[in-house]
Structure formats: C-alpha cells, structure tokens
Amino acid sequence: MVDKKHIRAYALKNALEHDGKAVVGSVIAGLFNHGLQKSQIKEIMPKIQDVLKEINSMSGQELEQEFAKLESLIGHRVERDGLAELPGVKKGSVNTRMSPSPSGPLTLGHILTIGPNYLYTKKYGGTFFIRIEDTNPENIDPKAYKMIKEESKWLCDGNVKIVIQSERMDLYYKYAQKFIDKGAAYVCTCDVDAFKDLLLKKTGCPCRSLDKKEQKKRWKNMLDKDGYKQGEAVLRFKSDITHKNPAMRDFPLARINTTPHPKQKKKYRVWPLMNLAVPVDDIEMKMTHIIRGKDHMDNSKRQKMMYKALGKEKQYPWVAFIGRLHFTDFVMSTSKMRKAIEEGKYSGWDDPKLPTVVSLKNKGYCPEAFWKYVEQRGVSETDKTISQKDFFQLIDNFEKDLKRDK
Ligand SMILES: [Zn+2]
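Above: query sequence and zinc ion SMILES. Below: predicted holo structure tokens.
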C-alpha cells in the first residue's frame, strides 16, 4: 500500500542523495518498487507535489532527521551480512589503520572510524593498526597513551597492533632526507606572511630553487640545537606551485618545536607534521586500504603526491571516506568534553553521560553492538544527524539481538 508516509520517505531519500532537491520522477520510480500502479499516478500526483514542496525547503539537517524516522518504511536498510566487499582483495592482505591523537581517550567518534577498518581486516585477514599521532608535543595528554591502548584492545578483542609515532622519529628523518635528495622537499626560511603572498601568486619562494647541497645544509641546521630556532625554518614538499587549490601548493612536512615531549622529553626538536608521518607509516606498514573521515580528503591528495615523488604511486592504498555522526543534543569533541570535566559538569571521562569508550564499556555495551551499527551504515560519505536517544535506542536493539543470538 502506498500512502503519504511512503511518498515522504522516498522524497526524503531522493533529496538527501541530490543536494536537498527531490524530483517527481525519482519518487515515482521508488513508489513503483512499492506496488504503485501506473493507473494510480494521476491520483497520487498532487500528493507527491505537496510533499516535494515541503521537503525541498528543508535544511540538510531536517531532511536527515525526518528520514531517520521513515527510513525503515522503504527497506532502505539493506540487511547485509557485514560490510560490502572491498575491490581487488586477496585473502590475508588487508592492512588498515586508524590514527587517534593522544589528546584524550577514545570516544564514540573513534569507534565509528575504527569500525570499518577493523572489520575489514577481520573479514579478509591482515593487520589493523592503531597509530597514536603524538608528533605535536603541545597537544598530548600523557594519560591518553594508556587509555587508547586499553580501549582499542577492548574494542578489537586484542586484534590490533598499536604503534606510537614519536618512537619512529628516525624513520621520518630518513624519509625527509629522501625527499630532499630527490629534490622533492626544501627548507624554507621565509617569513610566513611573505611566503603566503608568493604562494597565492603561484610563485615559489627564493628557498625553493636553492640546490640540494644547500638544502641538506639547511636540514642539518634544523636538526642542530644551535641551528635555526623555532619558527625560523620549515621543511616543505615541493608540489605544483600552480596547483588550482592553493592548499596543495608546497605544503609543510616538518617544523621545529622545542616544547618538551611527554615521552621523548628533549630528544627531538624537529617534528614531522601529519603529511610527512602519515605517508611514511603507510608505506612502511604496507597499508592497503584506508577508510578515513571526509575532512581528510585534501590530505589524501597530498599524501598521494608524496607516494608519487618516491616512485610508489602504484602502491598508494585504496581510500574511502566516511561522513560524520552529529548528535542534535551533544557536541562530540574531546576538547569540549575535557573543558566540561574541568568545570565539574562531568565527573570524569567515565561519566555515564559522556559517549567515551570507557563510559560505554562501564555501562555494559559490547563492541559488537557498535559494529552492527557500522555494518548497517556502511562506508558512506553522508553525514548523519541523530539525537543521542535515537542513536542509543538503535544500539540497545543491536545489544538485544546479540544477546538473543548467543
Ligand atoms: Zn622560503
């Protein structure tokens, strides 16, 4: 039976798939799947038009919220056994990773990114890495190392290899040297604003054209404690200075930061930035597939350029992006949660009101319930907006299913 709710459900789905604007034809096509007869079109048309008029004036968030209520009506949730197949995979050959920053414990946001990566290594065989990105000495909570280790082991049932980036510094230096040797990186000593001006004019700075011998000398000077001071020099990747996106032009790879590191203390003064450490680790760990937040789209492009500079373009992993989960009634941000804890709004990271892994674990949830959610959602770039109550109702239902299956 086709009623107004079904029309609404298909219209919302179509609008979400097409920048917020649903069209009559697509809605009718959907309704045909639902038993609509050609002879009924004339009768139902005014209803469709009414619905479209309303839906096409909604915001993206309203569309998502409304669709969440009606999604089940149109069998949009395909009951699949696990995630969709990955392209071109050999058994035992899928290596994936997730890279939390040690600024706090793992949260629900991390769970949703860990999910597909971990589940794919479980499905095909391979290694799932948790790579703690601690190469910014200013953004580290020393307690986070232990929390992230314990929480990721719990989430992945022990099947996770944990790697700490600050213990791999020699490797990043080795690669920095390689890029310099290949003429693909240079040490820039320009004033930041002057450099930016040139960059926007698609013009290289004077450092860019200095020869390799001079670059090597400058790099040594960056590493030397009596050399450049913090802020005086930065290692940059030599990309296409005329690239249509200014953010892709000669981006930074490493910088000097003399803040003592919680683990390495004063051992290092030059720290790799994400766009150096990430491709180095991906190459060394033989990463095959990467599923990451869609805020990393530009970084993926940068990292692919770096593979290419090393002649490893063909080895660049398969990459997919996932949208974010927004709660209508809570902002999932580690720094905001930390602030609220400090202000006494919550008792700690394990406060039952917080969606941190430790709190979810204490409440008795098992990781599989979240994996069910991850499988159902699939690898999709669409952001999702939902209230905490609705989200946890879904998770509670999965918990019930799991208990029943056991
Ligand atoms: Zn320069």
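The chain has a mean pLDDT of 93.
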